[in-house]
Amino acid sequence: MVRDRVLDVVGTLARLGLAAVWLLSGVPKALDPDQTYVAVRAYDVLPPLGVELVAAVLPWMEIVLALLLLLGLGTRVAAVASAALLVVFMAGVTQAWARGLSIDCGCFGGGGQVEPGRTAYVEELVRDTGFLLLAAWLMVRPRTSFALG
């Protein structure tokens, strides 16, 4: 009984933490679509139409995931989608690093080219691994407190 309550609290913190991440990343991108386009283009993996599509859709995907997680609706599905998106982000950062690109990830707005030596690839990957662990927790145990679903 106590164990279940503790697990519910841990899950709730994971759910709300991941929701905060998506809000803090999606809202700045939605408010500055031109900069979001610059950030997506900097990865140099998509054709122009793909860059436009990703830059237009990504902020709203992040905001929808945030709202689902905040409300506790479809928590497992939102966690799976979060994990998939995080893996794509991590692959993007990894390929940029491997190719010697000097970019800011644009994860929380901004993004694009930076001076050589001003990248933060390791920190970005470690941070995203932590977010991925939150999503994994919610995939395994989506039951949380104060959830509508």
Short description:
With 149 residues, the protein is an all-alpha fold. The chain has helices at 2-31, 33-42, 48-71, 75-98, 121-140; strands at 103-104, 112-113. It has a two-stranded antiparallel ribbon with strand order 1-2.
List the helices and strands and how they pair.
Elements: H1 2-31, H2 33-42, H3 48-71, H4 75-98, E1 103-104, E2 112-113, H5 121-140
Antiparallel strand pairs: 1-2
Helix pairs in contact: 1-3, 1-5, 2-3, 3-4, 4-5
Task: Explain how this protein is built.
It is a single chain. This protein starts with a helix and ends in a 9-residue tail after the last helix. With 149 residues, the chain is mostly helical. A hairpin with a 7-residue loop joins strand 1 and strand 2 (112-113). It is elongated. The chain has a two-stranded antiparallel ribbon with strand order 1-2. The protein contains five helices and two strands. The protein has one domain. The longest helix has 30 residues, at 2-31.
Number of separate structural domains: 1
Structural class computed from helices and strand pairing: mainly alpha
Helix content: over 70%
**What is the helix/strand order?**
HHHHEEH
Approximate shape: elongated
- In total, the number of strands is 2
The DSSP helix count reads 5
Biggest sheet strand order reads 1-2
Strand content: under 5%
Radius of gyration: 16 Å
Main beta sheet: 2 strands, antiparallel
Search tags:
single chain; 149 residues; mainly alpha; two-stranded antiparallel sheet; 5 helices
